[in-house]
Design a protein that fits this description.
This protein has 448 residues and is α/β, with parallel strands linked by helices. The protein folds into 2 domains: 212 residues, D-Maltodextrin-Binding Protein, domain 2 (3-Layer(aba) Sandwich), CATH 3.40.190; 203 residues, 3-Layer(aba) Sandwich (D-Maltodextrin-Binding Protein, domain 2), CATH 3.40.190.10. It contains 18 helices and 13 strands. Strands 1, 2, 3, 4, 7, 10, 11, 12 and 13 form a 9-stranded mixed beta sheet that branches. A two-stranded antiparallel sheet has the order 5-6. A two-stranded parallel ribbon has the order 8-9. Helix 8 packs across helix 9 and helix 17 packs antiparallel against helix 18. The longest helix is centred in the last third of the chain and has 20 residues. It is globular and about 65 Å long. The termini are far apart. 48% of the residues are buried.
């Protein structure tokens, strides 16, 4: 059994101040479309399930297993690239393109819920609230808007500081860095030993990864991107968010210890060349890094506590939502959505079949705390994490990000500013000043 103190720590709800917003939404991105659905309401037990493109074979197999137990429900699967998923979802909802159950994340939930595109699960299924004591606090918060829970986890994870322990040891470094200043010091030392770029990160301005990795680094310093009134902090020179942004620009341009590659799979590949030592990535990449069948340096990679004063990191959930379109099609469809979401994100016959499968086969994190006591899950994670205890300590310090209804829209602007700053095309002050100006413009549109 898991130690109760540790479990209680994971279930602690780090609830943040969330004001209820009234008034019109910003532009067309937050307005539900009025075009009629192209699907007949007679197809009551046919559900359209929309996902981003990732391991579709497993999704299809999970659907097949679900349909074997629920032969009266048929599922049509549609998938779209991750970097296009937000805009594609907006377009589908505006045009009333059939969408019953969809993937979502905390950075888009408030936007979609405000627009009336997705509905609170707890308003339709009394069993949803029973999961609150079985889901990690940061994941529950990510799925909650205006004190109502909208989803169950597809997966939940952290963004962690990952390093090559062997390279550190071989160069006489006895412990990973504890602060960002130590990251710089160790990187410069390793640079002197012939490692040109000790730190590697991914950068693609079309992917939310930039913003999420940045947030996790800021959390390590004990900071936030916005305050409780949803005003920007990142443009304030004394804030942790500003300091971390400056650190990243300096790491690239001044100290020349950091390089970038387009995708996280490129990070995994290049870390396995031994040419890089540090990265900050979605924790599920640890399974690929330490995969003995594919990775030349498997077993050398470990998770360290996120550098900074508090060692916190960003924890998040991606989850299943039910749409307003599904609700409008009648109770039979609503009931079918409930069965589907509970099977995919919740408990069935005392098991969490889909979440467990993602964890064991792909190393994906999970929000369902009973899986921490599952022998298969624990064995899998102990194998690829190497230092399971440090990962678990980091997990206890993970927290959700303060969200807003315009966060997903703003993130697309911020990522371009970030890319320009680390390329030396604009200054830190100009990049963060422009990002704050854009944030405040969107905030004004949504709050009027």
């Amino acid at each position: 059994m898991m130690d109760k103190t540790l479990l209680d720590g994971l279930l602690t709800k780090r609830r943040l101040s969330r004001r209820a917003f009234v008034g019109g939404a910003a532009a067309s991105l937050a307005l539900p479309g009025m075009i009629g659905s192209r699907r007949s309401a007679a197809a009551a037990a046919e559900l359209d399930f929309v996902v981003w493109t990732y391991n579709l074979e497993m999704i299809q197999d999970n659907i097949k297993k679900f349909q074997e137990g629920n032969p009266d429900i048929s599922i049509k699967l549609s998938d779209f690239p991750w970097n296009e998923f937000h805009q594609t979802s907006v377009q589908r909802f505006q045009s009333k393109t059939p969408t019953d159950v969809t993937y979502n994340g905390g950075d888009w939930l408030e936007e979609f819920a405000r627009a009336g595109w997705v509905v609170p699960l707890e308003d339709h299924f009394p069993w949803v609230k029973e999961y609150q004591d079985k889901i990690i606090g940061f994941a529950w918060q990510d799925m909650t808007y205006q004190d109502k829970v909208y989803g169950l986890p597809y997966y939940a994870d952290t963004i962690t500081f990952i390093y090559n322990a062997k390279i550190l040891a071989d160069n006489g470094i006895t412990a990973p860095p504890q602060t960002w200043e130590e990251v710089t010091e160790q990187s410069l030392f390793l640079k002197g030993k012939g490692i040109e770029y000790p730190f590697i990160n991914m950068m693609d301005a079309t992917l939310p990864t930039i913003t999420e990795v940045y947030a996790s680094m800021v959390f390590g310093r004990g900071g936030e991107l916005i305050d409780e009134e949803k005003n920007p902090l990142f443009d304030k020179p004394d804030s942790a968010a500003y300091q971390q942004f400056q650190w990243e620009v300096d790491a690239r341009l001044k100290d020349k210890i950091m390089t970038y590659v387009p995708h996280e799979t490129d990070v995994v590949r290049d870390m396995n060349t031994g040419k890089h030592v540090f990265t900050v990535e979605y924790n599920y990449n640890m399974k690929a890094l330490n995969n003995k069948a594919q990775s030349p340096l498997a077993g050398q990679f470990q998770v360290a506590m996120m550098p900074g004063e508090t060692h916190e990191c960003y924890g998040f959930a991606k989850f299943y939502n039910m749409s307003q379109m599904a609700m409008e099609r009648g109770q039979e469809v609503v009931d079918a959505c409930g069965k589907f979401i509970q099977y995919f994100g919740g408990e069935t016959d005392g098991q969490y079949p889909v979440a467990k499968r993602w964890a064991v086969e792909d190393g994906l994190g999970f929000g369902q705390t009973p899986l921490f006591e599952d022998a298969d899950v624990k064995q899998t994670f102990q194998e690829f994490l190497v230092d399971y205890d440090t990962w678990f300590e980091q997990l206890k310090l993970a927290r959700a990000r303060r969200q807003s209804e315009w966060y997903g829209i703003w993130g697309e602007f911020f990522r371009r500013q970030y890319a320009q700053a680390v390329a030396g095309e604009t200054s830190v002050d100009d990049a963060l000043g422009a990002s704050a100006e854009e944030w405040n413009k969107l905030k004004g549109q949504f709050e009027r």
